[in-house]
Amino acid sequence: MNLRTLTSLHFCACFSGVLAEAIEPIMFIGVGATLGRQIYHYLRESCNSNWIDFNAKGLKADLDSKLFGQHIATRIILKAVNGFMTNNNPKKPLVLSLHGWTGTGKNYITKLIAENIYAEGMKSNFVHVFTATLHFPHQSHYIQYKSQLQQWVKGNVTNCERSMFIFDEMDKMHPGLIDGIKPFLDYYEKLDGVSYRKAIFIFLSNAGGDSIAQTALDFWKAGQQREDIELKDLETLLSLSVFNNNKSGFYRTSLIDKNLVDFFVPLLPLEYKHVVQCIIAEMKAREMKVDEKVADQVAKDLIYFPKSERIFSIKGCKTIESKLDYYV
Ligand SMILES: Nc1ncnc2c1ncn2[C@@H]1O[C@H](COP(=O)(O)OP(=O)(O)O)[C@@H](O)[C@H]1O
Ligand SMILES: *[C@@H]1O[C@H](CO)[C@@H](O)[C@H](O)[C@H]1NC(C)=O
Ligand SMILES: *[C@@H]1O[C@H](CO)[C@@H](O)[C@H](O)[C@H]1NC(C)=O
């Protein structure tokens, strides 16, 4: 039986940490310090293959069944993460940049990736989320933020080379702060004695969302299938709107011209039918009876773009959780 089944069978993940804390000092004095320490390390998340173990099949299954309407993102993420995680000697960390409107699945994708790498998923001590407006709210303090962030990244990667860093609202980050993480993303064997090559960096932003939506709308108006949209239809537009837009934190950072971002991942705006899928998934997650009428009602209540044709949900699947509370 591996550790993952053991912990999930016998302990709720949220208790395992607490339990381990309690076990270490008290219970095992009698059993012997060595055994005590072994059990402690067995229960307490550590930077080893008991706790960090990439599940390629799991990631594919999750993306295929849980992520709706994102055929391009699904393909890129699988290729990127599989390639990186099965390479024992990567030459640089994996750097992904996810772009799209709110509620289209950017955070959700990072959660699915984390769950298929870390036994503890997003709760792992090796997964770090930074939100621009939360962690770095004052643009004028960026010099201070920058040195703090650099210390955090360095400290965490020193602890565990398989660390994952997620930067939400990347477009709201001061360009100077983005420049501060640039050295970590590069091809250095070691930087100050630390290798960052096995770490994963994921940037999330709305930047480029409007041009992605425009392309999706053009396809729709031309009567073409959403599934016929390809990465190449979006790539140029995306880089223009992200990097030449002076409102974007990416503006004039040399992330792009140094090719430090390995994959740009466009998230398409979600259609009515995807919103319905999200609502039904949420009903199942809450162990409610699946009621398609209610799902329809909730989906109809959202705001769509363009106003006349109502094709794409402006907030994707974001607000459905609270809307669902209101209807049931
Ligand atoms: N493409 C999608 N497929 C399935 N569920 C989705 C999708 N997009 C969003 N959701 C749902 O909506 C919630 C909010 O989406 P999130 O990933 O946080 O959006 P954002 O793109 O703003 O990061 C998610 O937790 C998930 O339940
Ligand atoms: C790791 O990052 C977190 C923020 O996610 C920070 O609070 C912590 O101090 C960092 N650890 C080290 C050792 O730097
Ligand atoms: C950004 O660009 C717009 C239009 O090109 C311009 O009006 C604005 O002054 C610019 N802002 C900054 C901060 O450079």
TrEMBL record:
Signal peptide: 1-20
GO cellular component terms attached to this protein's record: endoplasmic reticulum lumen; nuclear envelope
Organism phylogeny: Eukaryota, Metazoa, Chordata, Craniata, Vertebrata
Record's keyword annotation contains ATP-binding: yes
GO annotation, biological process: nuclear membrane organization; protein localization to nucleus
SUPFAM superfamilies: P-loop containing nucleoside triphosphate hydrolases
Species this protein is from: Cynoglossus semilaevis (Tongue sole)
InterPro entries per the UniProt record, alphabetical: ClpA/B (IPR001270), P-loop_NTPase (IPR027417), TOR1A_C (IPR049337), Torsin (IPR010448), Torsin_1/2 (IPR017378)
Major location category of this protein: endoplasmic reticulum
Cellular localization per UniProt: Endoplasmic reticulum lumen
GO MF annotation list: ATP binding; ATP hydrolysis activity; kinesin binding
Family: Belongs to the ClpA/ClpB family. Torsin subfamily.
Residue sites binding ATP per the record: G100, W101, T102, G103, T104, G105, K106, N107
Residues in Torsin-1A C-terminal domain copies: 270-327
Name the record gives this protein: Torsin
UniProt entry keywords in alphabetical sequence: ATP-binding, Endoplasmic reticulum, Glycoprotein, Nucleotide-binding, Signal
